[in-house]
Design a protein that fits this description.
The complex is a heterodimer of chains A (254) and B (300). In chain A, 23% of the residues lie in helices and 18% in strands. With 254 residues, chain A is α+β, with helices and mostly antiparallel strands. Chain A folds into 2 domains: 12-209, Alpha-Beta Plaits, CATH 3.30.70; 218-248, no CATH class. In chain A, the strands form 5 sheets. Chain A has a 3-stranded mixed beta sheet with strand order 10-1-11. A two-stranded antiparallel sheet of chain A has the order 2-3. The longest helix of chain A has 12 residues, at 26-37. Chain A is elongated and about 90 Å long. The relative contact order of chain A is 0.20. Chain B is an all-alpha fold and 300 residues long. Classes of the chains: A alpha+beta (254), B mainly alpha (300). Chains A and B meet through strand 3, strand 4, strand 5, helix 2 and helix 3 of A and helix 3, helix 8, strand 1 and helix 9 of B. Strand 4 (59-67) of chain A pairs antiparallel with strand 1 of chain B, so a sheet runs across the interface.
Chain lengths: 254, 300
């Protein structure tokens, strides 16, 4: 049913730390690796070894340059995947009931055997979180690794989404954002976790932690600079003679 | 948005076809027998032919029947139901008019309402999308409905009705273009809001996620040159409204009426191409492909 549940028991989602992300794309690769060989249709590539390769990805990492009013520009790596929105516009537009939001944990999923591949859900998503697989003709999206997080065949430390498990920087956190006392909720509250495009009214579950304020390198130089001033006032010897001789040449300073 | 031929052909033809079915349903013109057969053949060819073409862009057309199930929430599902109901009702009415010489007015009126409903539900598929600010306006259903009604009247040979309706559709078209050009800016979605980084400073896309293209760029980030689109708007407006209106004021002949309908069809197809090609999906902001709204950035 493509009507949204009034409320979900839990709101499983991700907290992504833009301060910590180093832009290594390991989450992109582990996501593609896990999801191409597990739940649903594989994530196909077109012309993978040719001149114009493209493919289906459920997680992509953008990089942005942000120029503050004063100080140096900052480079921020920005992983983007499905935000499992509370008010998910992709679900309600689906004509077949293939798209749905689960009542038990809030995960937005696609039942691929019901998907007609009309693409309207991808049109409705402002974040570009859904991609039509060119080989299978069905819509693919992040499942929050629903086949890992409840999978008792996996060791307990692996029962998190593949992107979270693989992140070498610890920039991705998984948990219940509906519980205000969960680790992810407290982390988000502490660090000012934000919604992407709140004006779109989607009420995303995933939160992004803004980069912490940067140290100002100019200020640090100012602190140390007096110690680095030349202290030799009177120069003599060979260096003193050379300095005077060079200064006397045309173009030199006296 | 990518201007997919299947969707442009579908919305153009079926809009015109259901517009004609509306007028036939309310008995303008009150045709029976062979004349009715010709009118209904044209209307069904346009409406049903358009619907057939629309299935070409589906990844799995064999599952299309499932699209009738989610009418509670989905405008696309409502459109499918409305279209089938309109075609069935008007089919029944056509059987009466063509073979029995009967005009079952209540059936015709129900069919006319369903035909108009189909055009409306089609337009709401686009108008409901907040992610495409240019479409997310009451002007989208107004445009689809006024084009369907005026084009239908033109095909039905109702010159007295067609002329004022064409003028209304032309006005709505101009308003849709004018309001549409500032829609992205008014939506409040910018690179700053998309990334949440606007509080730090001016945001610039430094590196895309992949060196190649992808589904999102192909489907949502179609950029039309400004001069190119201005020229196409003039062509669309002249063909869809100006030429048919001029021809309507000449003494009536079937050749001129046919010419007016063809010009209108070509103009609407051109306008529909622009409807898709000019529409800016906000996902383009993540790729730095949309000009940020002037003044929306904290630092210029």
């Amino acid at each position: 049913m493509t009507t949204l549940p009034d409320k979900t028991d839990r709101k499983m989602g991700l907290v992504i730390d833009l301060d910590t992300c180093v832009g290594c794309h390991a989450c992109v690769i582990s996501c593609k690796g896990w999801n191409t060989e597990n739940y649903g249709a594989p994530l196909s590539d077109q012309d993978p070894y040719g001149s114009d390769p493209s493919g289906t990805f459920l997680n992509r990492v953008h990089s942005y340059e942000v120029q503050p009013e004063q100080g140096a520009a900052q480079l921020i790596h920005f992983p983007k995947s499905c935000l499992h929105c509370d008010d998910a516009p992709c679900v309600t537009v689906c004509p077949t009931g293939a798209s749905y939001k689960r009542v038990e944990d809030g995960i937005v999923l696609v039942n691929e055997s019901d998907c007609i591949g009309c693409g309207l859900c991808a049109w409705a998503c402002p974040y570009g979180a859904r991609e039509m697989d060119a080989a299978e003709g069905v819509m693919k999206k992040c499942t929050l690794c629903v086949d890992r997080i409840y999978n008792e065949n996996l060791p307990e430390e692996d029962r998190v989404p593949a992107c979270v498990r693989t992140c070498p920087a610890g920039a991705r956190h998984f948990g219940d954002l509906g519980d205000p006392d969960s680790d992810v909720s407290r982390l988000s509250a502490e660090r000012g976790g934000m919604d992407l495009m709140p004006e779109q009214g989607t009420k995303p579950v995933n939160k992004y932690l803004p980069p912490r304020p940067k140290d100002r390198i100019e200020d640090q130089i100012d602190v140390l600079a007096p110690l680095l001033e030349p202290i030799a006032a009177d120069t003599g010897g060979f260096i003193g003679w050379l300095d005077k001789a060079l200064s006397r040449l045309p173009g030199g300073t006296i | 948005m990518h201007p997919a031929p299947s969707v442009i052909i579908f919305t153009t033809l079926s809009g015109l076809g259901f517009g004609l079915l509306f007028w036939l349903g309310i008995g303008l013109p009150p045709v029976t027998g062979w004349v009715a057969f010709v009118f209904f053949a044209i209307a069904f060819a346009l409406a049903a032919g358009g619907l057939m073409v629309s299935t070409f862009h589906l990844g799995h057309p064999e599952r299309a029947l499932k699209a009738f199930t989610q009418w509670r929430s989905s405008w696309l599902s409502r459109e499918g139901i409305c279209a089938v109901a309109a075609l069935a009702t008007m089919g029944l009415y056509a059987i009466g008019a063509v073979f029995l010489g009967a005009t079952w007015r209540p059936v015709g009126i129900i069919g006319a309402v369903l035909s108009l409903g189909t055009v409306f539900t089609t337009s709401m598929i686009y108008a409901q999308l907040r992610s495409v600010p240019r479409w997310n306006s009451w002007l989208t259903p107004a445009l689809f409905l006024s084009l369907g009604l005026s084009g239908g009247a033109l095909l039905a040979g109702q010159t007295a009705i067609a002329a004022p309706l064409l003028a209304v559709a032309a006005t709505v078209q101009l308003a849709a273009w004018q309001k549409g050009d500032t829609a992205l800016q008014r939506s409040g979605s910018t690179m700053a809001s998309a990334t949440g980084l606007g509080g730090i400073g001016e945001v610039r896309a430094f590196e895309p996620p992949h060196t190649g293209t992808n589904y999102l760029l192909r489907e949502f980030v179609h950029v039309v040159g400004r001069r190119h689109s201005r020229r196409l708007r003039v062509i669309a407006f002249a063909l869809a409204f100006v030429v048919p209106l001029l021809l309507l004021f000449l003494p009536f002949s079937h050749a001129l009426a046919g010419l007016a309908a063809l010009a209108h069809l070509a103009g609407v197809a051109c306008s529909r191409w622009l409807f898709f090609a000019e529409a800016e999906h906000v996902v383009g902001l993540y790729y730095g492909k949309r000009q940020p709204a002037p003044g929306a950035q904290p630092i210029s």
